[in-house]
Amino acid sequence: MQAPSFAVHIPIVCFGIAFPAFVLLLEGPWLRTGDPRYRTIAKRWSKVMLALFDLGVVTGTILRFELGLLWPRRHRSESALPNPFPDPSRGGRACHPGI
After folding, report:
1. What distance in Å separates the CA atoms of residue 78 and residue 18, rounded to the nearest whole number?
2. Is the pTM of this model over 0.70?
3. Distance in angstroms between the alpha carbons of the first and the last residue of the chain
4. Nearest C-alpha neighbor of 26 from the set 40, 16, 15, 12
5. Cα separation of 6 and 63, whole Å?
6. What is the pLDDT along the chain (99 residues), one digit of tens a residue?
7. What CA–CA distance (Å, rounded) separates 88 from 35?
8. What is the distance between the alpha carbons of residues 42 and 25, in angstroms, rounded to a whole number?
9. Distance in angstroms (rounded) separating the CA atoms of residues 61 and 59
10. 8-state DSSP, 98
């Protein structure tokens, strides 16, 4: 059952990482020209970006649970101290500098 979770999670995360750049590209012309169409489109896509981020968090949490069930010894050894750049192969959250 892990394959459907990955099949949903990976594209969502890719779009969630790319959408901030897209929204910034739309806000640039709005700041230059003052055309309200660019601002309206940017505001609409920012709502989509927020929904994708939330969905990515949920699917990532589900994957974390599934990986913990599949390889319990590997996930038991994680440190109690927070790590800003955890190793994704160890089941930690990947840190994307673009976010």
Report:
1. 30
2. no
3. 29
4. 40
5. 7
6. 678 888 888 898 888 888 888 888 888 888 899 899 988 988 888 888 888 888 888 888 888 778 777 776 665 555 444 555 555 555 545 444 444
7. 42
8. 9
9. 5
10. T
